[in-house]
Every structure is written in structure tokens, then in C-alpha cells.
Design goal:
The chain is an alpha/beta fold. The protein has one domain (11-376): Glycosidases (TIM Barrel), CATH 3.20.20. The chain is 35% helix and 13% strand. The chain is built from eleven helices and eight strands. The protein has helices at residues 11-23, 52-61, 72-75, 86-97, 131-148, 153-157, 184-201, 226-235, 254-270, 307-323, 367-376, and strands at residues 42-45, 65-71, 101-107, 168-173, 206-213, 244-248, 278-283, 330-336. It has an eight-stranded parallel beta barrel with strand order 1-2-3-4-5-6-7-8, surrounded by five helices. The radius of gyration is 20 Å and the shape is globular.
Length: 381
């Protein structure tokens, strides 16, 4: 989750808020209609644990898909230990039971494969430096796909559940963040290893290039913006190793979102990937204007607005993505997040504390929930 820029809104975006609420049609040209959108198009990124009643409310709100993490250190305690997917099983069970398509994000490197790495950021360094890291990552991926893919043991173990296997596998999260220290060439090696492994278990599985933060116009450090990083990934020969690109186009303005998506699409077209989809795997604004959180500083503060403004931002951004779904080949949009964290630690991004559609108690809906529902109810079931 990242983004920068001044909090302003264009006249077109203001029009989008009003027009979309009334008629679900935006300013400017539109290449697809809301009625043609599949139910899975509108998704949620949970932050923190969800209770069964959360999934029921998500289904009632029209949430068609859910994006969640499967972290290698969380499912394997030590080198050679069996994989424990118990916590992930609970998520998959509830998502399937409530008819939500799943996108799994595979990430993190455990300390047991990199004993020489002692820094706090070791877990977010992609695991390709040593043979132990590469072999361990490969085994982790094989186990996850063998558990939840179309032939997965989870579905054999739970025959009464609606069978909705995971077919899209997102590799890492915000790998272009300089904090992670993952050069594009190094990440391309992870993509190649991941694609080879996933497709060896499930040939029809789709590999999604991990969600990159975009960085709006005016903040274009080479190799950091999503589009410059993507160029380097292509230059490393990775075009064959992913089936979709994921983007986190956080921006205080709707124009900034458009700008980031168009830059990504330009890079993809320049490399012959005209129809590969772009997944918006995170987008959101916080509703806690006026609230300060310890350790946060100004990081993400530009994405903190009032509750009515949050609903307006959701409406305007969803309308932009819906109306350009065909021309930009948008494969889905995931709002961050379902509900505010209940007992959050200090130091999160400023908007992370209040970007939910529900307050932290999970019972008090915000105006943004109704805005989400207006789009979801028009999607195809």
C-alpha cells in the first residue's frame, strides 16, 4: 500500500461521483457497461481476521472475490517441517461457502532458509539468492497449488463445499517498494521459478505479477514507479512468466488513478501484451479525517478523508474502472479493506486504520458500503 500526491479532485471526477451514484455512468467515453460486469469483478482485501458473519455480510453486499495472503513462514515453521494450511483452510472454506472467487497472494521468506540475513527486512526479500531459498519456495508453491488448485486435496477433503478452486496466484506484494530491496531483475527470477512450478502442478493456473504501487505523476524515480519497474521486468525476459499484472494505483485523485493505469497499459502494449489483464488488487481511502495515529507521521495521510468523501472516492474510482474495463482490460478491482482493524499496531499507513467499509466493531457500516453495493448489485451473478 503506497501512494503520494496532493489532495485535489478534477472537475470530471467530481462529476463522476454525482453521475455514477444516480445512473452508474461516468463522464468521458465508456467502453463497457456495469450490466456486463461479472460478479467476481468487485472484490475485497481483508485486513486482519474475519469472522463467519463477516463473510455472510460480504456475500450480502455483493462481494464477488477476495484477495488474501498465503505467507510461507506462516505455513511452515522450520526447514523440512510439514506445511500447515489450517488458517488458510478457514479462509478458503468461508470464501467458497459464500460464493466468492479467490486470489491468493504468495509471499514472504522464512528465516530458516536465510540464516545469514539478520535484518528486520529479511522476510520481504524475494527467495532466490541461494539454492535453499529457491528449493524451499518451489516446495511452498507446489504445496499451495496442490492444496487449493482444481485438483486440490482441500476440495477432496470438503466435498460438501461449492467447488471453486484457486486458479490465480499472485507472486509477492509491492515488490517495487524500495524498502524491500528487490531489483526488477531479481524479481523476474522469482517470477520464472514461480511460473514453472505452478504450471507443473496445474497447467491452467494463472500467474499474476505481484501488485505494484503506482506512484502518481510527478514522482517518477527510475525503477520505483510501477511502469518503470515493469519495463525492467520485461527487459529481464519475464513476459512469458506472467498472465496478468497487478497494480495498486493509490492516488488522492481519480485523474492520478487513470494516469497510472494508462502508463502500465502503455508498457504492456509496447511489449506485445495487448490483452493481458490488469488487476487492481488494492485501492482505497481512509475515513478517519482528523484522527492521528502513533508512529504513522504523514505516510498515507493524503488518502484519509471524511466518511462521505470515502464513499465518493469509491464511487468515482469504481466507475472509472468499470467504464474502462474493456479498453484497459481490467480483470478486477479489490477494495482495501472490509473493516477497520480492531487493535491495530502503531506505525501503519495513516489510511490503513480507517479504510474499511465497516468500522472496527464489524457492525457499523460506513457510507462507502452502500457505494460498493450499488456497483456489486448490477454485476452478473
Amino acid at each position: 500500500m503506497a501512494g503520494t500526491g496532493r489532495d485535489r479532485q478534477s472537475r470530471c471526477a467530481l462529476g463522476l461521483v454525482v453521475v455514477a451514484v444516480l445512473a452508474l455512468s461516468g463522464c468521458g467515453s465508456s467502453t463497457s457497461t456495469t450490466n456486463a460486469v461479472p460478479r467476481s469483478f468487485y472484490g475485497i482485501v481483508p485486513y486482519g481476521p474475519l469472522a463467519p458473519h463477516d463473510y455472510a455480510r460480504m456475500q450480502a453486499a455483493g462481494v464477488g472475490s477476495v484477495r488474501f495472503l498465503i505467507q510461507w513462514p506462516a505455513v511452515q515453521a522450520s526447514a523440512g517441517a510439514p506445511f500447515d494450511f489450517g488458517a488458510t483452510d478457514a479462509i478458503v472454506e468461508q470464501a467458497a461457502r459464500h460464493h466468492m472467487t479467490m486470489l491468493a497472494t504468495l509471499s514472504d521468506t522464512p528465516s530458516f532458509v536465510q540464516p545469514s540475513c539478520t535484518g528486520a527486512r529479511c522476510s520481504i526479500r524475494v527467495p532466490v539468492a541461494t539454492q535453499a531459498e529457491r528449493t524451499g519456495w518451489e516446495r511452498f508453491l507446489r504445496a499451495a497449488v496442490a492444496r487449493y488448485g482444481p485438483q486440490g486435496s482441500f476440495w477432496h477433503d470438503n466435498p460438501s463445499l461449492p467447488r471453486d478452486p484457486i486458479t490465480r496466484w499472485e507472486i509477492w506484494n509491492e515488490q517495487n517498494n524500495p524498502v524491500q530491496g528487490n531489483p526488477a531483475q531479481t524479481y523476474a527470477k522469482l517470477l520464472a521459478l514461480s511460473a514453472r512450478t505452478i504450471k507443473s502442478v496445474e497447467p491452467g493456473g494463472e500467474v499474476v505479477l505481484g501488485g505494484m504501487f503506482g506512484t502518481p505523476k510527478g514522482f517518477q524515480r527510475p525503477g520505483v514507479t510501477a511502469w518503470s519497474y515493469l519495463k525492467l521486468v520485461y527487459r529481464a525476459g519475464a513476459a512469458k512468466d506472467f498472465d496478468a499484472v497487478a497494480l495498486h494505483p493509490y492516488s488522492p485523485t481519480i485523474a492520478g488513478i487513470r494516469y497510472q493505469i494508462e502508463r502500465i497499459r502503455d508498457v504492456m502494449m509496447a511489449h506485445g501484451d495487448v490483452t493481458k489483464p490488469i488487476l487492481i488488487t488494492e485501492i482505497g481511502w481512509g475515513s478517519g479525517a482528523g484522527t492521528q495515529h502513533a508512529g504513522t507521521g504523514s505516510r498515507g495521510q493524503t488518502f484519509v478523508v471524511t466518511p462521505p468523501q470515502q464513499a465518493g472516492k469509491l464511487t468515482a474510482s469504481f466507475q472509472l474502472l468499470t467504464s474502462h474495463r474493456t479498453s484497459w482490460h481490467i480483470g478486477g478491482v479489490y477494495w482495501f479493506t472490509w473493516k477497520d482493524p480492531l487493535n491495530p499496531p502503531p506505525g501503519l499507513c495513516a489510511f490503513c486504520y480507517s479504510s474499511g467499509l465497516y468500522s472496527a466493531n464489524g457492525r457499523s457500516p460506513k457510507p462507502a458500503l452502500s457505494a460498493f453495493e450499488r456497483f456489486a448489485r448490477h454485476a452478473l451473478s
